[in-house]
Design brief:
The chain contains 15 helices and 24 strands. The protein is of the alpha+beta class. Among the domains are: about 140 residues, Herpes Virus-1 (2-Layer Sandwich), CATH 3.30.40.10; about 60 residues; about 160 residues, Apoptosis, Tumor Necrosis Factor Receptor Associated Protein 2, Chain A. Strands 15, 20, 21, 23 and 24 form a five-stranded antiparallel beta sheet that branches. α2 runs antiparallel to α3. The protein is extended.
């Protein structure tokens, strides 16, 4: 988590002691430049000033040469599209105008010739000029990427320029350039397009909400009958043609009004629906509306009874006809019996012939008996051969029994394997439950330890063991940041924690220890005054007994988001950490001198919050 820049007292306090060497170098460089000015009086002030800013920027950044820097900061990248339409309160200096795009310089990059360009303009120029070397559009000096560096001094001056809101004259706000984009996110005169699908209306932010809720023809409104949300232009058609809850008149002309989805059910009882008389199967042909048909059935009872009697008479006639047909069938059966008797007489000679054939069959059977005797003798010889192989069959039976025993053992082994698999599943289940209990126990243990060391007086001394091992892990980015247990400014006070980068963070990476404080969501944030305004002091403790502690403090900037109330959507959500990226150099920290900060591979870090004027709840 990177520190944020603050204004006021905090900005002054966050400059660490380690920068004193760089400041001395800047002072020496200024003296050399003053001497150069006495020897070269003919040089103009306009040519010396960019050079001085170039040298200061190089010394402040700690590098004499660097390659093209990273992407633009967020507010600069957002202003790229409107940088040519910006209106400054004071006329923009010529040195702040990019010679490539002729707009205000955003994320300034300085060449060895002393001219500054926008980051994205210089990047485009380098890409267009490849493979040939690009030249400066002002003095045609060759631009070498290795000699280009970010001009932080110029960047600070440009970010503090006063500009008018881009929505002027409707909006009269005047603000710093680096605050313009944040202002436009809430400016009531900013033109915005309606978010309803199909609407292309563009309105100022102050009129947009009223348009969205009441005047946009593409807004969605709930149907007054079925409460289904629909686009306003489709709502009337929905109610006229498809809404299931709208009361509609019966299509058959009755005076009733029913919900559209109940029309089918209504037709089952509607008096205006056309239907047939229920005595239609008996010959009644009356048709009409259900109401009139019912009246017809009530009035014409005698007529209907007469029709039923006529239908019964007709059925009786049909029964008589069927009986006559049954008598006719019986006569036909008798005739068939006479014919059958004649056929039996014709069959008798055939039966006599069949007896002759039986005699022939008996002769054949005797011949077959003789052949069976011969076959019996053959079978006897086969039996004698079979007795010789009886021993082989007994051995085969023994093998079969052995095979059956092996099969039984295999089945038993398979049952045992299934039982072992079941036991393994139960063991896995119990192991999972045991892991859950162990994790919960560790969590409770950690929570108990945090409760034991929790401070409620705005002070915390944090003991960091295994310093060298954790520092090496931080250098390998395996453990970049360490966070202390939370502490509070009171029983119902602010909740805070310390964050330390043992191998440095940001500008101090690899050279310094970085130390920050972070505001965390607390149980009583809703009752506390915001923003946080109490002075915070951070210290690295001297373990030699001389009390030569290394301490730095800062006063919070109320306008900085880091000191506003932390969001409470989740317990892990905290504000951005604030502190010192170059708190103390690693050489001073690890080399014993007037103070011993690391002893027995242990480091002590202290934080103290000034609770003066802070009312306890």
């Amino acid at each position: 988590m990177h520190p944020v820049e603050a204004s006021g007292d905090f900005t002054q306090q966050r400059v660490p002691d380690c920068v004193s060497h760089q400041q001395a170098a800047i002072t020496a460089k200024k003296r050399l430049m003053a001497t150069a000015e006495t020897h070269f009086e003919q040089s103009s002030l306009q040519s010396v000033e960019p050079l001085r800013r170039c040298e200061e920027s190089r010394l402040e950044s700690g590098e004499t040469r660097m390659r093209m820097p990273g992407p633009l900061a967020s507010w600069e990248s957002e202003l790229t599209s409107i940088q040519h339409s910006l209106k400054f309160v004071v006329k923009l200096k010529e040195e702040f105008v990019c010679p490539i795009c002729n707009g205000v310089v955003l994320n300034p990059q300085q060449n060895s010739c002393g001219h500054i360009y926008c980051f994205h303009c210089l990047q485009d120029l380098l890409e267009r000029s490849s493979p040939s070397s690009p030249v400066c559009p002002v003095d045609e000096a060759v631009i070498t990427p290795a000699e280009v560096f970010q001009d932080n001094c110029c960047k600070r001056e440009i970010s503090g320029l006063q500009v008018y809101c881009t929505n002027s004259p409707s909006c009269t706000s005047v603000l710093m350039l680096n605050q313009l984009q944040e202002h436009l996110r809430s400016c009531q005169h900013e033109p915005l397009q309606c978010s309803h699908p199909g609407c292309r209306e563009v309105l100022q932010r102050r009129h947009l909400q009223e348009h969205l809720s009441s005047s946009c023809p593409h807004r969605r409104e709930p149907c007054t009958h079925c409460r289904q949300p629909l686009q306003l232009s489709l709502l009337q058609e929905h109610m006229q043609s498809s809404c299931p809850e709208v009361q509609v008149e019966c299509p058959d002309g009755c005076s009733s009004k029913v919900a559209r989805h109940k029309l089918t059910e209504h037709r089952e009882s509607c008096s205006e629906v056309h239907t047939d008389c229920s005595y239609k199967p008996f010959g009644c042909s009356v048709q009409g509306k259900r109401g009139s048909v019912k009246k017809h059935e009530e009035v014409a009872v005698s007529h209907h009874m007469l029709m039923v009697l006529q239908s019964n008479t007709h059925l009786e006639q049909q029964v008589e006809v069927l009986q006559e047909e049954a008598l006719l069938r019986e006569q036909q059966i008798q005739t068939g019996s006479v014919v059958l008797t004649g056929l039996q007489k014709q069959i008798r000679p055939l039966l006599q012939q069949s007896s002759n054939h039986d005699h022939i069959v008996s002769t054949a059977q005797r011949s077959l008996s003789r052949q069976e005797d011969a076959l019996s003798s053959v079978q006897l010889g086969v039996q004698q051969l079979s007795r010789g192989r009886a021993a082989d069959l007994e051995e085969l039976e023994q093998l079969r029994k052995s095979l059956d025993a092996v099969m039984q053992e295999v089945l038993a082994a398979e049952a045992l394997r299934d039982h072992i698999a079941s036991l393994e599943e139960k063991l896995k289940c119990h192991s999972g439950l045991l892991d859950i209990h162990v994790a919960q126990l560790n969590l409770n243990k950690q929570h108990l330890q945090e409760l034991e060391v929790t401070s409620y007086d705005g002070r915390l001394i944090w003991k960091i063991d295994d310093f060298q091992k954790k520092k090496e892990a931080s250098a390998r980015e395996q453990l970049p940041c360490l966070t202390s247990t939370p502490f509070h400014t009171g029983r119902c006070g602010y909740k805070m924690a310390i964050k330390v980068y043992l191998n440095g963070d940001g500008d101090g990476r690899g050279t310094h220890l970085s130390l920050y404080v972070v505001l965390m969501p607390g149980d009583f944030d809703a009752l506390l005054p915001w923003p946080f305004r109490q002075t915070v002091s951070l210290s690295v403790m001297d373990q030699s007994g001389s009390r030569n502690h290394q301490s730095l403090s800062f006063r919070p900037d109320p306008a900085n988001k880091c000191f506003q109330q932390p969001a409470a959507e989740a317990e892990a959500v905290s504000n951005v950490a604030v502190g010192f990226s170059c708190f103390i150099s690693l050489d001073t920290l690890e080399t014993p001198g007037k103070a011993v900060f690391v002893k027995d591979d242990t480091l002590f870090v202290k934080v103290k919050v000034d609770t003066a004027g802070l009312e306890q709840l």
